[in-house]
């Protein structure tokens, strides 16, 4: 690839990072290149796994988790997971519940690490599972740290209901996000999996939200009386990871 093409690719990548999800026309204006050139660059970056298109019409573009993984190694050579694991271990020992680390990929989160509880009755999601933002503690926490336009764009899309307790009303979700911002953690009772409760908090770098952390377990054990204590624990753990990033 010629030097000019490499420079253009990084300019497009940085522009997407600043404005995601963002459309072709806006990107072309931002980077000052013809639409045809920007389109070729977008397709190349998609091919190598750095960008992905949304499912909306017209198409908009977003970073993939690969960007987070690579950027997380800047400076100290540690990835997001490397930084998070020690904190997750401490959180798991303190709470004795399952700890999830998720990172964004398009309009959902991907489970990138899980520390299991020693209890036989537990919350379980396989690594690599895609998680809807509006249906989960990690997703709501992540949304709470996103900018207003990203949230509004997300809420205009389809809000599926994995369980009868999933929030799907945009106004209800907006209200929940305001509460999450005030207290620093999210609460989700049966919204992703029936009978499972979770509390989550966003992990934020200087560039914005990059991941989310949660404590999950059976609703019979994670009762509302424990929410404040557990919520503050996951909030503080996420803040520690954020500072390390």
Automatic annotation (TrEMBL):
Give the matching InterPro entries: GAF-like_dom_sf (IPR029016), HTH_MetabolicPath_Reg (IPR050707), Tscrpt_reg_IclR_C (IPR014757), Tscrpt_reg_IclR_N (IPR005471), WH-like_DNA-bd_sf (IPR036388), WH_DNA-bd_sf (IPR036390)
Please give the organism: Mycolicibacterium tokaiense
- Superkingdom as given in the UniProt entry: Bacteria
Q: Give the PROSITE patterns listed for this entry.
A: HTH_ICLR (PS51077), ICLR_ED (PS51078)
Any idea where the IclR-ED domain is? 66-245
Gene3D superfamilies annotated for this entry?
Answer: 3.30.450.40, Winged helix-like DNA-binding domain superfamily/Winged helix DNA-binding domain
KW Signal (keyword) present? no
Q: Which UniProt keywords apply?
A: DNA-binding, Transcription, Transcription regulation
* Protein encoded by which gene: kdgR_6
- Where the record annotates domain HTH iclR-type, the positions are 3-65
Short name of one Pfam family = HTH_IclR
Which BP terms from GO are recorded?
negative regulation of DNA-templated transcription
List the protein's name. Answer: IclR family transcriptional regulator
Q: Which SUPFAM superfamilies match?
A: GAF domain-like, Winged helix' DNA-binding domain
List the GO molecular function terms.
DNA binding; DNA-binding transcription factor activity
């Amino acid at each position: 690839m010629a030097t000019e093409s490499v420079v253009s690719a990084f300019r497009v990548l940085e522009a997407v990072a600043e404005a995601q999800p963002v459309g072709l026309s806006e990107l072309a204006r931002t980077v000052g290149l013809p639409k045809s050139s920007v389109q070729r660059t977008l397709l190349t970056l998609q091919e190598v796994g750095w960008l992905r298109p949304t499912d909306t019409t017209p198409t908009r573009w977003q970073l993939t988790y690969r960007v987070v993984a690579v950027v997380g190694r800047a400076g100290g050579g540690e990835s997001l997971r490397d930084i998070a694991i020690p904190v997750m271990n401490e959180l798991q020992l303190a709470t004795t519940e399952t700890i999830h680390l998720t990172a964004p990929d398009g309009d959902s989160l991907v489970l990138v690490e899980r520390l299991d509880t020693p209890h036989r009755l537990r919350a379980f999601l396989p690594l690599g599972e895609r998680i809807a933002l509006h249906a989960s503690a990690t997703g709501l926490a992540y949304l709470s740290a996103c900018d207003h336009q990203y949230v509004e764009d997300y809420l205009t899309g389809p809000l599926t209901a994995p369980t009868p307790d999933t929030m799907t009303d945009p106004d209800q979700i907006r209200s929940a996000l305001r509460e999450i911002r005030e207290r620093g953690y999210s609460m989700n009772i049966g919204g992703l999996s029936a009978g499972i409760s979770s509390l989550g908090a966003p992990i934020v770098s200087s560039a914005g939200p990059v991941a989310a952390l949660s404590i999950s377990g059976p609703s019979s054990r994670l009762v509302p009386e424990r929410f404040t204590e557990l919520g503050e624990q996951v909030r503080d753990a996420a803040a520690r990871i954020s500072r390390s990033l």
